[in-house]
Amino acid sequence: MSARGPRNPAPGSPYANLNSPSGSPILLWHEDSLAGTRLRLRPKSVDVVVTSPPYNLGVRYGAYRDDRPFEEYLAWIGRLRDAVDLALAPQGSFFLNVGGPPRDPGRPWRVAQEVGERFVLQNVIHWVKSIALPQSALGRSSGVTRDLAVGHYKPVNSPRYLHGAHEYIFHFTRHGDVALDRLAIGVPYQDTSNVTRWRGAGRGVRCRGNTWFLPYPTIRYRRTDRPHPASFPPELPERCVRLHGLSRVRLVLDPFVGIGPSAEAALRLGVPFVGFDVDEAYLAEARRRLHSLGAVPAAPPVRPRRSRRASPARGLSPGP
Ligand SMILES: C[S@@+](CC[C@H](N)C(=O)[O-])C[C@H]1O[C@@H](n2cnc3c(N)ncnc32)[C@H](O)[C@@H]1O
After folding, report:
1. What is the distance between the alpha carbons of residues 258 and 277, in angstroms, rounded to a whole number?
2. What is the C-alpha to C-alpha distance for residues 142 and 263, in angstroms, rounded to an integer?
3. CA–CA separation, 319 vs 124, rounded Å?
4. Do residues 279 and 256 lie in contact, with contact meaning Cβ atoms separated by under 8 Å?
5. Could you say which DSSP state residue 105 is in?
6. Domains in the chain, please, with CATH?
7. Using a 6 Å CB cutoff, which residues line ligand 1?
8. What is the position in ligand 1's atom list of the atom closest to the CA of 282?
């Protein structure tokens, strides 16, 4: 094994078996997640699923073809839903990030409807990637002296449609009754002089609401700075995990981990993580990023004689 982990993992082993600096395990599997979640995870062991599946928009991924007939795609989303259903804990949260093409803006809702066959849609969060803010709305105390336009979006090459500057994060739970830690991702009160009468004001923050402004950082070279055609920023999964309630999170799953922002979020938060992708190049980039953030190869599990296999974290198996 090299210092950065195995280059060609043995069959049945994870692509990367790492520990975060705080010691929590991070496993990346190079396989189809619909099969892998059944094979690698104990039933009902995952507290938070946060993921962005392919949207069937003809995006040019490396190993996956993103242009199936729509009905076939929806059936596949149904199989993803069933796989998550097996893995998710009774009080778990399933955050599903989906965007749609300009010519069919209702498509994310058809995906949500398919998942809603088994789960309750508890919240709809709008991931805002770019926004224009009038100076007048910011107030004098902001110090801002002109209107602001912040963030990036992919321009639409048609006079019929507006540029797409947002996507959805559908928050599903089993029964719509999962209490959230809203203040864990709260925003500071603008004026704190009058807030003691509000519940939760002790933390000095209020609920952020269901519009999340999460701009992509400005990059110079996509091939090196963000080598994935449909990646989300790590702040997105981080916010989802914290919203669910960090103290209740024993395992996070991303079935479509790409270059690893959700693994990065788990590392920062010190929670166990398992991710899957069918594309080895993306996993290599995810592993490289995790190493640069201080992840280290996990020590092989110690197997004392006449005892059963050691398990690194509840619900998480590193191999056969
Ligand atoms: C929208 S991207 C997710 C990107 C990821 N959130 C990121 O920020 O890098 C979808 C990913 O799913 C992967 N994929 C497609 N089908 C898969 C499957 N059946 N199992 C696992 N991964 C799959 C693709 O290779 C692609 O990286």
Report:
1. 6
2. 35
3. 36
4. no
5. T
6. 18-126+165-177+211-297 (3.40.50.150), 130-164 (no CATH)
7. 32-34, 52-54, 61, 63-64, 228, 230-232, 255-256, 258-259, 261, 276-279, 282
8. 27
Please tell me the predicted confidence (pLDDT) of residue 6.
45
- How far is ligand 1, taken at its centre, from the CA of residue 255, in Å? 7
- Residue that has been written with the tokens 């002296």 in this structure: 145
CB of 27 closer than 8 Å to CB of 262:
no
Nearest partner of 34 among 94, 107, 87, 112, judged by Cα: 87
What's the pLDDT at 190?
Answer: 75
pLDDT of residue 196: 58
- Residue 3: what pLDDT? 35
The residues facing 212 across adjacent strands are: 127
Nearest by Cα to 279 from 29, 4, 6: 29
Q: What is the DSSP letter of 43?
A: T
**Average pLDDT per consecutive 10 residues, the chain (320 residues; last block may be shorter):** 47 92 97 96 98 92 91 97 98 97 94 98 97 88 87 88 95 98 92 60 85 86 76 96 98 98 98 97 96 93 60 58
